[in-house]
Amino acid sequence: MSAKSKNFYTILILGSLSALGPFSIDMYLPGFDAIAKDLHTTIPKVSLSLSGFFIGISAGQLLYGPLLDKFGRKKPLYFGLLIYILASLGCLAVTDINQLIVLRFVQAIGSCATAVASVAMVRDLFTIGESPKVFASLMLVIAVSPMLAPTAGGYLIAGLGWQYVFVFLAFMAVLMFLAAFFFLPESYVPDPAYSLKPAPILKSFRSVAIEPQFYTYALITSLAFSGLFAYVSASPMVFMNLYGISKTGYGWIFALLSVAFIGSSQVNSLILRWHNSKKIVTSALLAQAIFSLLFLLAATNHLLNIYSTVIFIALFLACLGLINPNAAALSLAPFSKNAGSASALLGALQMGLGALASVVVSFFPEKSTLAMPLIMTVASFLALFCLMAYQKRKSV
Description:
The protein has 396 residues and is mainly α. 82% of the residues lie in helices and 0% in strands. The chain has two domains: 8-183, Growth Hormone, Chain: A; 204-396, Up-down Bundle (Growth Hormone, Chain: A), CATH 1.20.1250.20.
């Protein structure tokens, strides 16, 4: 096999590993109504299984970094995939919503291994010149996943039932395990001297967390991102339960809205030719706060319909596509030595606030449209406040 072909298959496997998390989040969304009926619960309660997944991802971000340095890349990856497969199969046998919530948390802990290991292996296997292109390929797979997963999930659930989503995800993980076992090289020599004691790990995280530029822009991107999680958690309830959209129709709406996020994030690279990241974040965050407030005012005055709801969500996601890459880059910019810890802490904060947003969604009635716009508005204005406070302190 030529070096070029080998690189292609390596990137394909790493991209598939990166896509497992997004598929796990989005593929079962069209089944919320069916899950609620089968488990004799409500759709807001079902959304807590999504919160459990977000919490698991948040915790897993901090867990696998040290394990990958201590034991190499492949052993923690195998461990995570096995956990994921067992938890996915366990979801087939649940009899109440609490069991599903717990298993989704465990499933997320397993899926984190694929995301963290794939990023680490790109750094190991490719040169500095090659890495940006490889990361771009991985990001494209991750970005396309929200377009494919709910649509595919909608047809799978409509044809066979929501349980088959977890059969598909388990099968997907088995294929990844086999591909990693046979075709991925061990890219990092395990370091027996690496300490897994809490004190040095916490010390490294603390040195990152006290940097003002980090915690300002990490909070900005995480708060803005929490609006995305509010949308993901509330959208099955709003579109299928309130507006009466079918499972397959919901999948297509979700795919369409993903284009707004993906498109703006791609346009961002063009805008960067004329404006720096700080200016883009400030402008996009201000626009996001205005759009969110208008969305909230429309919801409180009962002026929303399916079309206006889609437009407001698309505007919010388009702003997020500009805020997220720039704020994330600015938060990590001060670090060279602790870049891994900073990245893990940023991911944990994003998923932690996302989990909180999805929990808040569960407190709203099934027929309410308020959850999404309220969380989006509060999150956007809090992020704007963080930015203004940081800019004021810098100017003093």
